[in-house]
Amino acid sequence: SPAIEMYDALNDAASKGIDDQALKAVQRDALRFSTTYGASAVEFVQSTESINSAIAGLTGNELPKVTKVANTLAFALKSTAAETAEFMGQMFGNFSADAERLGRVQFAEQLAGKMVYMRKTFGTEMATIKDLMEGARGVGTNYGVGLDEQLAVLGQLNRTLGTEASSAYEGFMTGAVEGAKKLGLSFT
């Protein structure tokens, strides 16, 4: 029965160290989410574990809010909460200074908005963006390029170069910085 499944999901999350207050908020949000989108409240609760492990350091207050953002993004992009958690974990890791500066919840909300924009503008899926960011191996971040610019460049390159986009970006960034050094210039 759904009630038993919800009880089990909450107990599983609690056994993974997620506190009761956070779980109460998650359960409330899960039921609203289920009613609004016709999606599984149990899966919403279960996603809390993957989000909590993917994004280090979320507080009991932040976890329910980020869980709601991740599940809403997953629904909007026809993805899964697990894929969204993995993607968000990577972005939080790559852009930890931004997440700390903005606050983790606001960073998650902005990231969700950026992903919807990337889908609408460039037709890129979240998994593709994740692969592009991994493929570029943090070169943009290493040279001080912000998330928005990296997404825009990688989205545009992906349109024309496909899977070669991240290596082209990495090559350009590395070459531009090396060339600038030879000329006595700095782009950062």
Automatic annotation (TrEMBL):
<dbReference type="Pfam" id="PF10145">
    <property type="entry name" value="PhageMin_Tail"/>
</dbReference>
<feature type="domain" description="Phage tail tape measure protein">
    <location>
        <begin position="28"/>
        <end position="187"/>
    </location>
</feature>
<protein>
    <submittedName>
        <fullName>Phage tail tape measure protein</fullName>
    </submittedName>
</protein>
<dbReference type="InterPro" id="IPR010090">
    <property type="entry name" value="Phage_tape_meas"/>
</dbReference>
